[in-house]
Amino acid sequence: MTRFGCTLLSEDHPPDRLVELGRRAERAGFEFLAVSDHYHPWLPEQHHSPYTWTVLGALAATTQRVELATMVTCPIIRYHPAVVAQKAATVAVLSGGRFTLGVGSGEQLNEHVVGRGWPAVEQRHWMLAEAIEIMKLLWRGGYRSFRGEHFTVEDARVFDLPAQPVTVAVAASGRRAAVLAARLGDALISDQPLAELVDIYRAAGGEGATWTQIPVCWGEDAERARQTAHDHFRFSALGWKVMAELPNPINFAAATEAITPESLAEEIPSGPDVDRYVNTVRSAIDAGYENIALLQIGDEQDGFFRFWEQELAGRLGAAAGAVAGAG
Fold it and tell me: Which of 43, 137, 295, 300 could anchor a disulfide with 7, C-beta 3.0 to 4.6 Å?
């Protein structure tokens, strides 16, 4: 069954606005809120990056129905996995079990700030595997110790646990991470709706839900919307291998100088044409993604929610129903 969520982009908004947008998204009928977990924004134009876990606590306390998720948290350098286990359990308790912990191997943009270096991607995947083992161990309750190649936990206990263990969704952009998601995670996340990642995940034994995110930029003026998407989201055109390696917003600004609003608009639905949004989301549904988060870029959030309520939600519901019926 297809579910639609709303991404709260921490890099685009201050913390109080994120909480306000989360409550608005719940009223609009979105089924989950995905929150990015960054230390720095991607680009100098974005200006924000509050502490996601404080925002999640506020959302847990001020929403009633909508589910919450990180998309995604890196539990291997900036955070120790034992600390992530504790704060994820706390958010799960505060939200009445409405929380999914999305995890990934991270980006240098956020992790280098603690001065521990930036390992090669293979090592980051090994570290992520250990981190997931540690978190799931701690969620079993009691005092636990762990000594691995990358992490040590000494006689730790998470005292406040939710009724059910936290669901761990693992982000993947290639085969290695998709197999890791099947082996150790409970669900798969891809920042792009690639069918091959779902196929790899399922072939490796993954039975959990599949999550993806679709950036959009609604606006009455199509040209202005394309420009906003370019100003705030052109980093996405670099691809994950580049995005994971650059250390600061100024580096992303330099790396994206050749990207134009017109070229980016081929990838990001923008403007008022509802058909463009429907076709993009339909492709994600066809690729096998069940939880689809829409990420409205920029400040035109109120207009996007009206667009969702008045036009897009009904059309996407019909598209999802048609796919389910055909299956």
Answer: 295
Query: Residue 209 and residue 51: Cα distance in Å, rounded?
Result: 27
DSSP 8-state class, residue 165: P
Distance, in Å, from the CA atom of 138 to the CA atom of 285, rounded to the nearest integer, reads 35
Q: Which of 11, 13, 26, 38 is labelled catalytic?
A: 38
Return the number of other C-beta atoms located less than 10 Å from residue 287's C-beta: 18
Q: What is the pLDDT of residues 251-269, one digit of tens each?
A: 999 999 999 999 999 999 9
Cβ–Cβ < 8 Å for 68, 91 = yes
Can 80 be counted among the known catalytic residues? no
pTM: 0.97
User: Hey, what amino acid is at 324?
Assistant: A
* Amino acid identity, position 175: R
Tokens of 212: 């993806």
Domains belonging to the chain, first-starting first, are 3-326 (3.20.20.30)
Q: Which of 11, 67, 107, 290 is catalytic?
A: 107
Q: Terminus-to-terminus CA distance in the chain, angstroms?
A: 11
pLDDT over threshold 90, residue 63: yes
Are 183 and 202 within 8 A, CB to CB? no
From residue 1, alpha-carbon distances to 40, 242, 294, 318 in Å are 35, 33, 17, 12
Residue 147's region, left for phi above 0, alpha for psi from -120 to 50, else beta, is beta
Omega of the bond leading into 72 within 30 degrees of 0 (cis)? yes
The DSSP output letter for 13 is S
CA distance 147 to 217: 46
